[in-house]
Amino acid sequence: MPAARAATEDTAMTELDDATRHALCDLLLAIADDKLMLGHRNSDWTGLGPILEEDIAFSSIAQDEIAHAQALYEFVGRLAGTTADALAFGRSPDAYRCAAVVERSDDNDWAIALARQLFCDHLDQLRLQRLSNSSYAPIAALARRLAAEEQVHVEHADGWVRRLGSGTDESRQRMQAALDTLAPLSASLLEAVADQATLEANGVYPPLDPPMTATWCAKLTTLVDDAGLHLACPESAPNTPGGRRGVHTPEFPSILDEMCEVYRIEPDAAW
Amino acid sequence: MVTDPRVPRPRSRYDAPMITTAQVERALATIPDPEMPISITELGIIDGIDLEPTASGAAIVRIALLPTFVGCPALDMIERQIVEKVTRLDGVERVEVRVIYDPPWTVDRISESGRASLREHGVTVPSPGDAPAGGSTLVKLRTSAVPCPFCGSTETHLDSAFGPTRCRSIHYCDACRNTFEHLKRV
């Protein structure tokens, strides 16, 4: 899209002031941490997917999510003077910015894993769409690439929800139960990072019109209705501080311990 | 005469001529993609080659690399091979590879010879102007008309959007009953 690129360059920021840089790092960590956790949780399904093709698909999505997280960590690393590995595996729990819904175990229930993916993919797509229009050109370029790849995830999750919704009584009932279980928790995705208002005001993370939360809800509700299922989509973030402010669920330290085990034994290990 | 070793001697007419972009390009064209039967130049992931002459006469070669997919695991290997091959050329002092996302890589950057080679190996590429990823649902994709690379039939269907690598999907031809792969349009 040469036209879009040129337009971005005209208004491009090349330098970030300290406050903007901190806020942007926080926002990118929120997105990257969500993707890292999700990728980690999805990789649990490698070898256990409900059918072979889905096993491969879920594993590929896990690979995508972790690759996206890595690219975002590298970006933050350049802004904050650290490395992707140190960010992914070397922070204390309260420095992570992921949402409660990606911390939750799926308890080996594939419908839960799919619903988790659905809520996250739709939000990811909108967050990346906003960053694609960022006044800070370097993040806009990366976000456009990530958004194009994210589209495949959205189509995949949507396709399964439709299929299970129009399948058997059991598939309908189990998909519905998973949506009911995760919908309240998915509100955790909507929490803003500290100083997000700064990024919205200076166009680094421009708002959507209609706003992101409303768009997210509308897309999910339309899809789920279409699949013959029901969704009580949360319309705002919880009132109490959550993952975006470093307040995590009781199960978070255990998943973090599992993920960081090798790094903590040998931080400089090369692969 | 005492010469200061820190000051390189000026180039003379007896020195080898400066390396050219074409020479670097030829070296890059010999590097295959690790996962597909196509060279990295045919794939279109090289965006620019800059030569900076140094006082010694040898050049610093800067190469911009566009990943097909973000964080593609083949990228490190490609980068290493580029450095290895180009460093070996005469007149090269150092090679620097930079991974960039702007301009973005798209399937439209694949050359005609690259498309032919992929087709021969059962991998099809979306034609320029095909609908980009997005806007379609998986249900619709089931009847997508990706032509079969073997028999040319459009009686094909998507088997899985997730193939052997992150950039490829798997399709099945209902006419000649062959499985083939298709590069995702990003």
Q: What key phrases describe this protein's structure?
A:
heterodimer, A: 271 residues, mainly alpha, Ferritin, disordered N terminus, B: 186 residues, alpha/beta, GMP Synthetase, Chain A, domain 3, four-stranded mixed β-sheet, three-stranded mixed β-sheet, 5 helices, 7 strands, 20% helix, elongated
Question: How would you characterize this protein structure?
Answer:
The complex is a heterodimer of chains A (271) and B (186). Chain A has 271 residues and is an all-alpha fold. Chain A has helices at 2-10, 18-43, 52-80, 84-89, 100-103, 110-132, 137-165, 169-186, 196-201, 212-226, 252-265. The relative contact order of chain A is 0.15. Residues 1-10 of chain A have low confidence and may be disordered. Chain B has 5 helices and 7 strands; from the N terminus they run ααββαβαβαβββ. A 4-stranded mixed β-sheet of chain B has the order 4-7-6-5. Chain B starts with 20 loop residues before the first helix and ends with a strand. Classes of the chains: A mainly alpha (271), B alpha/beta (186). The interface between A and B is medium-sized, with 30 and 26 residues.
Give the helices and strands, then pairings.
The complex is a heterodimer of chains A (271) and B (186).
Chain A: H1 2-10, H2 18-43, H3 52-80, H4 84-89, H5 100-103, H6 110-132, H7 137-165, H8 169-186, H9 196-201, H10 212-226, H11 252-265
Helix pairs in contact in A: 2-3, 2-6, 3-7, 6-7, 6-8, 6-10
Chain B: H1 21-28, H2 40-43, E1 46-53, E2 59-65, H3 75-87, E3 92-99, H4 112-120, E4 123-124, H5 138-141, E5 156-160, E6 168-173, E7 179-183
Parallel strand pairs in B: 2-3, 4-7
Antiparallel strand pairs in B: 1-2, 5-6, 6-7
The CATH homology group name of chain A: Ferritin, core subunit, four-helix bundle
Mean pLDDT of chain A: 92
CATH class of the largest domain in chain B: Alpha Beta
What order do the strands of the largest sheet of chain B run in, or round the barrel if closed?
Answer: 4-7-6-5
User: Approximately how much helix is present in the residues of chain B?
Assistant: 10-25%
Termini gap of chain A: 37 Å
List low-pLDDT spans of chain A: 1-10
